[in-house]
Amino acid sequence: MTTEPATALPAAVAAALRDLPAPACAYLYDTTTLRERAATLRAALPPRTTILYAVKANGHPAVVATLADATDGLDVASGGELRLALDAGARRIAFSGPAKTDTELAAAVHAGALLNVESAHELRRLAGLGLHADICLRVNRAGPALSGSHTMTGTPTPFGIADDQLGDVLADLPPGLRVIGFHLHAVSNNLDGHAHAAFLTDAIGWSQTKAQEYGLDLRVVNAGGGFGVDYRTDSAMDLTPLSTVTVPPGIDLVVEPGRWLTADAGWYTAEVLDLKTTHGRTFAVLRGGTHHFRLPAAWGYSHPFTVLPVDHWDRPYPRPAVTDTPVDAVGELCTPRDVLTRDRHVTHLRAGDRLVFARTGAYGYDISHHDFLRHDPPDFVIL
Asked: Among this protein's residues, is 334 annotated catalytic?
């Protein structure tokens, strides 16, 4: 059993969530926190490092616009994200993804985005479309990968070109395409800052070696994202070791964080509609659930919450309440898997109170199955 966090919600966040009409269900994104996170990351990185926000983490237009301004640009992985980036006025755009359509390839090149090409076939498709561009090759390198929630390289995945195929791909490079770097994104949600610093150094060294071997003018080493946060606690990847990385002159080290920039800038709240005890377990049934915030169910963990009390009660019948007991926070969907939190102790909880789930600014609403049962979407509040 876990207990309620001792830290209070930020005053502005609590006030905004308390003002929501009942039954409350909303995401709140704080643009000041987004800018602070971007500034903190920039201060921790070595010179000659470019920060591109990974739009996949949170594509809300206000978040994208804020980070397009606070970072150096945006990392996109679809035509829809490319349109978001252009609407946000991104100064620089990189386009990745293993399944780009012809339309997306052409749109990316015409928009001036730097393509991270995933295969020899994708190269041939670019040439077949008559497109000329400087590109990076995404490479799935052999060897042990970083630890994290999702491993992208060093194992069979659909991402990138196997490093033992790189020579053949470069030998058959179509005219009009020039390789200026490599994309080496390896892992999602790494919590080990020292290991990540070592990975960045290794990525630079590997890229220099391959560029010399194949006669490439190396300009870009894109190490992707992977800067992690721990959803069960307040901890996150320590950025301090990143400053020890040396980026040689003439090379642009690109990092593409998403989760680390946005997770702590978001809160999800859902009102308690019912409290019930069944076969010895107490359930707080919410106006919300995994169709808004799928990550706990997808990753199999319990997401911490804070109780935001709402004293007003104008119903003509008793108000359900529990005291000093563990509860499961569950959603409004007709499935027993609609669970955000298991076995979390609450001091006092009533129907009409609101549960607030912090650290939900990344991979929250964007990855969730919104249309299942067709419930109304949450509100979105921007501070």
From this structure: yes
